Amino acid sequence: MSIYDKTLHGQNVLGETSQTVSSQAASMSRRALLKGAAGLTIAFYLPRLAKAQTVVAQPETFAPNAFIRITPDNIVTVLSKHLEMGQGPYTGLTTIVAEELDADWSQMRVASAPANAKLYGNSIFGGLQGTGGSSAIANSYEQLRKAGATARAMLVEAAAAEWKVPVAEITVERGTVKHAASSRQATFGQLAEAAARLKAPTGDVQLKDPSQFRLIGHDGIVKKLDVPGKTNGTAKFTIDQYEPGMLTVVVAHPPRFGATVSHVDDGAARKVAGVVAVKTLPTGVAVYANGMWPAIKGREALRIVWDESKAEKRGSAELFEAYRQQAKTPGKIAGAKGDAEAALKKAGKVIEAEFTFPYLAHAPMEPLDGFMMWDGTTAKARFGSQIQTLDQGAIAGILGITPDRVQIETLLAGGSFGRRAQATSHLAAELAQAVKAIGPGTPVKLVWTREDDIRGGYYRPMFVHRLRGAVENGKIVAWSNTIVGQSFMAGTPFAAMIKDGIDPTMVGGAREIFYDVADFNCDVHMTDVGVPTLWWRSVEHTHTGYAVECFVDELLQVAGKDPVAGRLELMAKHPRAAGVLKAVADLAKWSDSKPAEGRARGVAVVESFESYIAQIAEVSVGDGGEPNVHKVWCAVDCGVAINPDIIRAQMEGGIGYGLGHILYAEVPLDSGHVVPSNFDGYRSLRINEMPEVEVTIVKSNEKPTGVGEPGVPPIGPAVANALARLGRERPRRLPMVRGTV
Amino acid sequence: MATYRLKVNGQTHDIEALPDTPLLWVLRDNLHMTGTKFGCGVAQCGACTVYMDGSPLRACSMPVSGVENSEITTIEGLAGREAEAVQKAWVARDVPQCGYCQSGQIMSAIALLQANKNPTDQDIDLAMNGNICRCATYVRIRAAIHDAAQSLRG
Ligand code: FES
Ligand code: FES
Fold first, then answer.
1. B 49-108 → A contacts, CB under 8 A
2. Which ipTM score applies to this complex?
3. What CATH number should be reported for the domain holding residue B149?
4. A7-232 is classed in which CATH architecture?
5. What is the DSSP secondary-structure string of A317-334?
6. Tens digit of pLDDT for each residue in A290-299?
């Protein structure tokens, strides 16, 4: 029996009363075909329930496609193919469906879809099921509009048949299907059973004209579906999973990246009351216990000899020095126009800036964790899986079964910022290894401590940017940018993205800039370091955005231009970027207001994931030279705005996340050992350091794009550029504040 | 292993644990009260905030042996005007993002309002800066505390 034809239970992750969501009525075998967002045909294939299956499907559930379930209790449940880790897809995806369905918001619910790439693939991920790259709304908008419109058409058809009136005379409003002439009406719930017997319409369904939207783009009606459970403690995360007989596992990981277990003395560990077993896994030594505390104590009592012969032993100072040297030599050309070298040679004065970016941990509030049951033939995992298809494959490979025998129930994740989207599926793999080592029949919850998290690698890579530019007669005439750093794509299933030795996730935002410069060059060196790295909220734009926006600001300063007007002069070919820049300047009254005494404002504009964000930061310098950021104005163009308040929230959160790291965060290595281990050494932004934020959403009819990441990149350079206007140097080494923890 | 008698949210529980087991893990692993979260284990993040005899406490850093004669309150056991006002304000502002820190934030916010019905921004900074929110929902946390304070003042 495949997992695809199982009755899916509406997960209780939101802390609501559990409800059963039937994936398919027994009488239905095949359903509609719908075109996916990128013109990809996605088959809504919902196979017949297997004979052996004991779970009774509910024939009265209306399941028009893979995303929508309507039950007689008048509840509409949207199956989210995307992980909810705080960026709001549960609510956003549900809004899209509710809009086309003309549902009442109060009847809308959400549940997480099972792992099934065929039904729930992400067209932006090439069909893999996964969440990231700010793609949830972008790849679902058209798909879910059609899904909602199809369901609506079928409910109308069911009503027309029952009332024996023409379809065209029926209206739907806020969850009520009406025939005005005969004063008849019915709820979706009342029509569910009849609609479930209908065949889905083939061909195109009529979508609403955007002018008719009453949820999309509007404030006030839509409330975030996951908020109540996250306000009363009932929301369930991975760490909250308990099953009878479950063991909690913590793993002792190597002290240096690349080291392996050579010898284990677990005598003392096994004597800790509550410790049940100790097993060596490929990633370290696992302690199994009746709870987290004995597991932690057991781990502390282990005596492990590590083989460090292949371990990375360099420190970050050493690596930076090597990167800096490499940045002085030309790398592989990622983008070029004219002849930057010749223009620089010709120029009277070359302006040079070298920016260094440290390793950064994502440090989601919920450390990595996973729960799994394994009976020897099938595995059931529950965790905040961010790329379900890869995780499913990794688990299957380790347990020696086919992926369809690996069921993944995707739970709410306590943040990710990229950390749970693992090209290598290392967490799912460690979970599977832990389950395999203890053997079938024992449910396992693997939990990383904060120390495991901060010291566990998969960092935003270290980078050096070396920029050179020239200004003649008030004009930027040359620009050259050499980038040095690690590729986290290399050696993963995503390596195919590396073209001609250039990893686009190292150079995006730098290989092409908004600013028209006649002679331009961007080249890149890929380094080989044994520290595992990973995408981190807004990926390459965390460093390219900073380097480019600081440097253009510096060149404009030399040219005697205003930071906003000077940028706009060079942005003729980038109307959306120029649009947000103008919008933020208006919002902050850039030209006709002055910051308070001792404060200055800086600006930056960055596009990432096809969303355009400009920010202005008002900054002063506090005691001890720490920048104080008082207020941030932010303009965003993310195409059609689905949920304005979620967009604002993501801008606020992105600004806070970006600011905290640009100001305080780094993961230095000393001879290969990670120095910080917890929030006492890896400083996080706190409430007293959070600026006031004002957001404006630029009206747009472009297709909707993401907002989870794009709020992050502009804040760093906006702060740096404000510092420059206070007469300080733009910080070239990040974080701006060091050694204060 | 030793046996302890705990009073949590008005109920008495007899549990078995190592004496140095932090209250956090007793609440979670023994009592399966999962609203109280683990974020750091070293009193840095506030995700594990509970009340001991009415005052906020980092449950990750208090051994179970130290709370035997105390009244423990967790997010599951909240009651009273301040709790209602805070939770209502949190929902009205859609404060949570990932939500993982929010039990701790709410516990700290309620404790603040119990002591001070008219907190300034600085009072909020002082009361709340032990609670990290990696999603940086701080703007809304601050606004929701002001909303709740206002509703309490009537
Ligand atoms: S878990 Fe207790 S303060 Fe962080
Ligand atoms: S809401 Fe995610 S850590 Fe606070």
1. 74-76, 78, 87, 90-91, 94-103, 106
2. 0.98
3. 1.10.150.120
4. 2-Layer Sandwich (3.30)
5. HHHHHHHHHHHTS--EEE
6. 999 999 999 9
